[in-house]
Amino acid sequence: MSQPIRNIAEAAKRASRLLGTLTAEHRNVAILSAADLIEQSRSRLLQAHAEDMDAASALLARGEMSSATFERLRLNDKKIAEMRRSMLAVANLPDPVGRILQRTELDRGLMLDKVTCPLGVLAVIFEARPDAVTQISALGLKSANAVILKAGREVERTASALVKIIRQALAKAGLPKDAVSLVTGREAVQQLLGMADLVDMVIPRGSKQLVEFVQANTRIPVLGHAEGVCHVYVDAAADVQMALAIIEDAKTDYPAACNAAETVLVHQSIAATFLPRLAERLLAKHVALRGCERTRAILSDQPVAAVAKGDWHHEYSDLVLAVRVVNSIDDAIEHTHTYGSSHTETIVTDDSIAAERFLNEVDAAGVFHNASTRFADGYRYGFGAEVGISTSKLHARGPVGVEGLTTYKYVLRGSGQLARDYQGPKARPFTHRRLPAD
């Protein structure tokens, strides 16, 4: 193991312990300072980004980078403004650290509090998203966690420039600059995954292959999702205009995002009239359609390719959409559970009973009624930003904001009590009285 990477992790651990002692105001000052400095360093960032884009263009031309990854890589004035806005939103959130979740009097003079606290050190491995640097750094500082970022080679120059700016802002605010650090190179991933004594959580943001590699090669808890295979089910009682608009938004607003729709399921009773309108709308947006046999029969005059059975569980991350006609809501729910990735699923219907069935029975991190899957996002949920979306059922689920980056500990305040006094035939009784947390 190379010593420099371990040195970085050890420095991050020390920084995390200091962050946990600072006030929310102190941490907020650092986030706000970093946001302002990023905006002031726009030309410097765009110059570094241009170098990344030149290298990425060559990879794209050789077929070594997908068009979806290339699109995720883009950084411009608008994106920099969004990065700053996201950091400001995080700074304005309530402090997630030190909240009393539960207070219990065990006995007179013996008080037990359940208190939120940081996780410690987060190792975040991401690929082509430059805004991941600012989102994760802001969320880490807000939740008093130190962050070690491992950027993909395609975004290394941009990420390096961003981290230097953030570390400069940390020093200016009097915080340890090692609260945010960057490592590069493939070897760094394997080394970080082996540092269970220093790293408290690993968050992979990228391809299915990356997430599965991380999950298989570490003893450190992993938070994230491998795929975003999201569905829109158009029920028999759907408002057709609403359904068309939702599907268009879910597929075309940002097709490379993990919350973009990949499959549309249409109830058989409306398929003959709905599918031609859907095809007309999406083909005008340059969306390539894939379909089941019934879909292709209805759209026989349209260029709709067949979907092989195994391809229903495919994340296109592009302007490609699979369409299937289903017999019932039961079939829609069954298809979603069989081929989905437990990310985000939507039903479009005016039937409140069907809607509630879907919302209650579909097992996913996000289940929506009459809304685009694109709403599955930390900023849109009011979290300020997110470190990623978790499809796990443990610790955090869905977009993970500051609360998902905290855990809790039990704080007991006594007045000389001994455990043996509560044992035996003359045991002192516990009161176990639940008190208001505030």
Kindly summarize this structure in a few lines:
The chain is an alpha/beta fold and about 450 residues long. The chain has helices at about 5-20, 25-40, 40-60, 65-75, 75-90, 130-140, 155-175, 185-195, 210-215, 240-250, 270-285, 295-300, 330-340, 350-360, and strands at about 100-105, 110-120, 120-125, 145-150, 180-185, 200-205, 230-235, 260-265, 290, 305, 320-325, 345-350, 365-370, 390, 400, 405-415, 435.
SSE blueprint:
Elements: H1 3-19, H2 24-40, H3 42-61, H4 67-73, H5 77-91, E1 100-107, E2 110-118, E3 121-126, H6 131-142, E4 146-151, H7 156-173, E5 180-183, H8 186-193, E6 201-205, H9 208-216, E7 230-234, H10 240-252, E8 261-267, H11 268-283, E9 288-291, H12 293-298, E10 304-306, E11 320-326, H13 329-339, E12 344-348, H14 352-361, E13 366-369, E14 389-390, E15 398-399, E16 406-413, E17 433-435
Parallel strand pairs: 3-4, 3-6, 4-5, 7-8, 7-12, 8-11, 9-10, 9-11, 12-13
Antiparallel strand pairs: 1-2, 1-17, 2-16, 14-15
Describe this entry's structure for a reader.
The chain has 438 residues and is of the alpha/beta class. The chain folds into 2 domains: 3-223 and 400-407, Aldehyde Dehydrogenase, Chain A, domain 1 (3-Layer(aba) Sandwich); 230-375, Aldehyde Dehydrogenase, Chain A, domain 2. It contains 14 helices and 17 strands. The strands form 4 sheets. It has a 7-stranded parallel beta sheet with strand order 10-9-11-8-7-12-13. It has a 4-stranded antiparallel beta sheet with strand order 16-2-1-17, with no helix packed on it. The longest helix is centred in the N-terminal third of the chain and has 20 residues, at 42-61. It starts with a helix and ends with a strand. The mean pLDDT is 94.
